[in-house]
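Morning. Coffee machine broken again, so started the prediction first thing and wrote up yesterday's gels while waiting. Chain of 67 residues, entered below exactly as on the submission form.
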Amino acid sequence: MTERKKEQWIMIMVRNKLIPDREWGMEIAFSVDSHGIEQAMREAQEYIDAKSRLFTNCEFKMEGGEW
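Came back before lunch.
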């Protein structure tokens, strides 16, 4: 049996900054394998910029990962 190659992703993590010690949760992910690193990073940053204006009680960050 052949093992599938894991895909690379840029994940947007979010948490409520009004609640102390709140854990980060994944909001959305952008595929590096499908879009390329530049486009995935650009889309992720645009997503953070748009959501940060709407949800001032939340903080966002990008993380790289694979699955």
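Residues 10 and 30 are 5 Å apart (CA to CA). Going to sketch it on the whiteboard this afternoon.
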